[in-house]
Specification:
Elements: H1 6-20, H2 34-55, H3 59-80, H4 89-111, H5 117-145, H6 156-165, H7 167-202, H8 204-218, H9 222-233, H10 237-260, H11 265-273, H12 278-312, H13 322-331, H14 335-363, H15 368-371
Helix pairs in contact: 1-2, 1-4, 2-3, 2-4, 3-4, 3-5, 4-5, 6-14, 7-8, 7-10, 7-12, 8-10, 9-10, 10-12, 12-14, 13-14
């Protein structure tokens, strides 16, 4: 007989607490479906956990646990809709029980060792998806259940509704900030940093002089650079691209110089015995050895570029752009629009980072960190 998981035992105890603390009257409470609703959630959570413990890691057990925990959470959120701020201990106890079911599900999925590559890729993506989904479920349930004012923290459903209704405005902001300022500044900053790193590697005194300055400039605050760049390059996207260039230049410079020095002395001596020139050694030995460092800089710059462009738009921009929209809508108290812009920025940054990471795996397939993954 399989051992009952601690998640199942704790979830059962929380369901008992929820049943004992259920408000005596349904109207106006956090559980407008009263005892029938609490029994439904109770059964969904406990049955899912029991099936998972009985049949794990079979498909029937994991599927029942997925449906039980998530349907229970959705029922709770649906029950609190229209009764915001009236959640009681029973509501939060059942929410915690459903979350324990999801925890048990992630534990089972993480222990699986599928033989097929598609199954491994699916699990690698599905487990983070569950984490993100439960962040949104908790966010929605707590903001509605506790009655948190909309101006402080709107629920994800309100943010999603605003995002869908503002697609043309958000698309224009993305074009201005990402497809102009971010991409232009990212390419210019990273390319110039790499070119100067090659030059610094070739000229010793330049390397010793530039790296300390690079560390100094990397510590400069964006809010100090952005107004200067706006005065120099104007209010359009060019000034924001200039800020991005400053932010991405030195991370690439420092990482590329470090990477070019990463190749071993034995390999360099071997190239010298073959009478290889500097450029032959650079392209055939030192750049491949430096590739992980260069891609590390590109990944760092993928997030720095977006942050720099958005912050720079706070200091002067045409009436379009993600930073402009955030600063304007905060003043108008349209917090759902602010969060919609934040969501788009987070999604764009994640996609940008993911594209660089995929390129890294394709280029540095030989590296132990990639072969081990």
């Amino acid at each position: 007989m399989r051992k009952i998981s601690w998640q199942a035992m704790l979830a059962f105890a929380l369901c008992i607490v929820a049943a004992l603390t259920l408000p005596p009257t349904a109207p106006g409470s956090a559980m407008p479906f009263s005892s029938a609703g609490i029994v439904t959630v109770f059964v969904l959570v406990i049955a899912g956990l029991a099936m998972a413990d009985r049949f794990a890691p079979r498909l029937a057990g994991t599927l029942s646990l997925f449906l039980g925990s998530h349907v229970a959470a959705l029922l709770l959120i649906g029950g609190i809709a229209g009764n915001e701020g009236s959640a009681t201990l029973s509501f939060f106890a059942l929410l915690a029980a459903a979350w324990l079911g999801a925890w048990r599900l992630v534990t089972i999925l993480s222990a699986m060792k599928p033989a097929g590559r598609p199954q491994r890729i699916f699990l690698r993506l599905f487990i983070p998806f569950l984490f993100g989904l439960w962040i949104l479920l908790f966010w929605e349930a707590i903001t509605r259940g506790a009655g948190i004012p909309f101006v402080l923290l709107p629920p994800p459903s309100a943010i999603g509704a605003r995002l869908v209704s503002s697609i043309p405005v958000l698309a224009a902001d993305v074009r201005q900030t990402i497809f102009k300022a971010v991409i232009a500044g990212y390419v210019l900053g990273s390319a110039s940093g790499f070119a100067v790193a090659i030059l610094a590697d070739r000229v010793g005194f330049l390397r010793r002089g530039l790296l300390p300055i690079g560390n100094l400039v990397s510590a400069l605050p964006i809010i100090g650079i952005a107004p200067i760049m706006v005065m120099w390059f104007g209010f359009d996207w060019q000034s924001k691209a200039a800020v991005v260039v400053v932010m991405t230049f030195f991370p690439m410079l420092v990482n590329a110089v470090t990477g070019l020095a990463a190749s071993g002395h034995i390999e360099r001596d071997l190239m010298r015995t073959y009478a290889a020139s500097y450029w032959q050694t650079l392209f055939q030995l030192r750049l491949p050895a430096a590739a992980p460092f260069i891609f590390n800089a590109l990944k760092i710059n993928s997030t720095l570029a977006l942050i720099g462009a958005i912050v720079a738009e706070f200091f002067g921009t045409p009436v379009v752009g993600m930073g402009f929209r955030i600063s304007t809508e905060v003043g108008r108290m349209n917090i759902d629009m602010v969060w919609a812009e934040i969501a788009i920025a987070a999604l764009a940054g994640s996609l940008f980072y993911g594209m660089v990471a995929l390129a890294e795996r394709a280029v540095t397939f030989w590296h132990p960190s990639v072969r081990g993954g």
